[in-house]
Amino acid sequence: MGSDTAITKTTRFGGRPLEYSLRRQRRADLKITVHPDLSIEVCAPEHRSDSEVEDKVLAKGAWIVQQQLRFETLHPLPSPKQYVSGESFRYLGRQYRLRVVSGAEPRVVLRRPFLVVEHRQRANRSLIERMVQTWYRARAEAMLPRYVDRAQATYPSLRSHAGPVRMRRMSKRWGSCTRRGVITLNPDLMRASPACIEYVIVHELCHLHEMNHGRAFHRLLSELMPDWQQRRARLNRSM
Questions:
Q1: Using CA atoms, how far apart are residues 84 and 174, in angstroms rounded to an integer?
Q2: Distance from C-alpha of 173 to C-alpha of 122, rounded to nearest angstrom
Q3: What architecture is domain 142-238?
Q4: How far is CA 42 from the centre of its chain?
Q5: Which of the two ends of the chain, N or C, has the fewest CB atoms closer than 10 A to its terminal CB?
Q6: Distance (Å, rounded) from C-alpha 201 to C-alpha 167?
């Protein structure tokens, strides 16, 4: 029986490392997908060996690299944050400059146009990073459930949601929804504009009616939020 669990594999093409996630599925052919975040996903038939899969990845190596370079040109990935004064951080779609200052009482506060971090160890970047991430998570835990409640009030057909709303940082997803109605949201959504947050939440609530991304799902999403594609594009551009 196929499994949706992915394992990470690495090979090299022309000196360039290619890391890909490999999923075994009940399928006749092997499929390679390059995502906009430059990640590589391989869905392979159960009977294909790891070496056969790697040979196929290498055979498509030139195409994979070309796709990654195209995505890098269209949507350059942001450089990793250094968590030093002067860097730009978003909160609810607005940009703030990070200001790290000495302070007897550790805290993170918004003082437009700054996101201020106060701590005695102002040069400790890993500590500053943890403080900022903790701040985003606290804001998400306080505000995102309210966005879910507001979406249900705005869209009556989505009022069936009764499960909990949880927070979890995810590297490639803004949210998820289980058949039991558990909605998980990425705290990094607090960086997005309210319109983009609403799109993600409505998207996940629609999964309570349609658990896949088929035509019925997109028809429901389009009926409720005709401009969802524009909101999604704005979300991807801004993050």
A1: 26
A2: 31
A3: 2-Layer Sandwich (3.30)
A4: 19
A5: N
A6: 13
Q: For 20-69, write each residue's pLDDT tens digit.
A: 989 999 899 999 998 766 788 999 999 999 999 999 999 999 999 998 88
Task: Locate the domains of the chain by residue range.
Answer: 6-74, 88-136, 142-238
Q: Are 20 and 57 in contact (CB under 8 A)?
A: yes
- pTM exceeds 0.85, yes or no: no
